[in-house]
Design a protein that fits this description.
The protein is of the alpha+beta class. It has three domains: 36 residues; 91 residues, Protein of unknown function (DUF541), domain 1 (Translation Initiation Factor IF3, 2-Layer Sandwich), CATH 3.30.110.170; 108 residues, Alpha-Beta Plaits (2-Layer Sandwich). Helix content is 36%, strand content 40%. The protein has four helices and seven strands. A four-stranded antiparallel β-sheet has the order 3-4-2-5, with helices on one face. Strands 1-7-6 form a three-stranded antiparallel β-sheet. The chain is elongated, with a radius of gyration of 36 Å.
Amino acid sequence: MFSKTRSGLYVGLLLVGALVLATGCTVATRAAADTTPPTRTITVIGQGRAFGTPDVAYITVGIETRGESVQVAAEENRAKMAALLEALKKLGIADKDLRTSNYSVYSERLPLYEPSSGTKGDSGAVVYHVNNQVMVTVRDLTKLGEALDAAVAAGANNIYGVSFTVDDPSALQDVARTDAVADARARAESLAKLADVSVGDVLTISEVTGGAVPVYYDSVKGAGAGTPIEAGQLEVQMSVQVTYAIR
């Protein structure tokens, strides 16, 4: 009986000792981790730009018709839009580059005005408006002026501006991205010098992609005959965020 009790006591003491040892190791490890100095970093945002000549244009043209009934206004609009699309196709614009962007119908109640008495009122007459808009992608900029002239000649009475882009911006993006990374390094070096430290390895790098922005620096007179259009110069901007270790 005494031997069993003593054996149990020894086992209990061993377990307590193991627990104390394990706890001591954990505390020591945590203390060592707490004394490890944190990695010092510097984070900057670099910006890069590249310039190129646009090779694609987008125009939105529309035809608005009026009539005493929806059917009359819609039929006139249909005929004029068919002529407009046919004129654009004759310039070599493909079906895939013609897309309806809006079709709307609304009514307007005409006012009544008597010049002799100067009175105003409601005439009771209603006019219906039908508006049809088409976005046109022009891939041959030498035909852009002709396309605008053809649209107007075919009956377009609404033109909602011209915008330019490049069909494949990847080459310009590569140039701008390289410029952005170099700019980030230069910014980091400048800040490190002010803080009396030096720039170490790159720890993280991420990219924020911007869109192509038209910048009218040097006009490109390539619109061809017809309405004069200046394509200008296209700017592509890229930004990168880089975190460097410092020492």
